[in-house]
Amino acid sequence: MRLTMYTDFSLRMLIYLGAKEPGVLSTVQEISESYNLSKNHLTKVAHELGKLGLIETVRGRGGGIRLKVEPQNINVGSLVRKTEDDFQLVECFNSNTNRCILSPVCGLKSALHKALEAYFLVLDEYTIADFVVDKDKLASILFDQPL
Amino acid sequence: MRLTMYTDFSLRMLIYLGAKEPGVLSTVQEISESYNLSKNHLTKVAHELGKLGLIETVRGRGGGIRLKVEPQNINVGSLVRKTEDDFQLVECFNSNTNRCILSPVCGLKSALHKALEAYFLVLDEYTIADFVVDKDKLASILFDQPL
User: Fold this and answer.
1) Which terminus, N or C, of chain A has the lesser number of Cβ atoms within 10 Å?
2) Among B104, B126, B43, residue whose Cα is nearest residue A106
3) What is the reported pTM?
4) Mean of the pLDDT values across residues A64-90?
């Protein structure tokens, strides 16, 4: 029941970028330093978020990354559905590898599916904008700016 | 977002025992053969379910394990809350190891907590009895008995 490091880092990167003024560029280096997270991992996260169309990269000197989509249009439920690669709650969720003989008569899979859907319905209520409401406070924490 | 093998095996063992007539003993050996799961792992699962007061062991020749609690009184939500050992959805869920500088202002933890609670509220609606309704069919699958 834990999210992957990739989901965790994706959310943090989007919050960081969402806390900046629209259009302003950030570098993976500064995000890595701000959160004290691996630059390598964050580089991969930036690449994946780019592929999802959520951030864009400006190359060259003075370049960096920024949101391509407004924070209020980045739904957290949709994001986590994409960044989590393993929803195999129990063996039978993967029909390729499932060997559980109960499968034809078991109601457990359906119950766990319903529970997972309830989980996402809650996350669907949130966008990145909900987590960057207090921009001044965030800036003082993330960008080391005085309040 | 996957459950541990321990939770998966616990649910399957309880379904197996719940499919038996009340009071009838099963052995870990037969459950292991029926599901084609590791006997070692199932032995540990039986031990833990015993500690939770859900199954009891009759020792000696002809001994075995059986439910100590009726299937309709084994709530799936309560069980999974106990068998899952890691609800650390993101780093800040563990206050001992959390290093995320966002924590003081971040609303993400609260959103993920709400989502997790919604997940369990669904599982709370189920008991093991819901998964052993068709005892004849289950018996034919699990105990290799003709329909």
Assistant:
1) C
2) B126
3) 0.86
4) 90
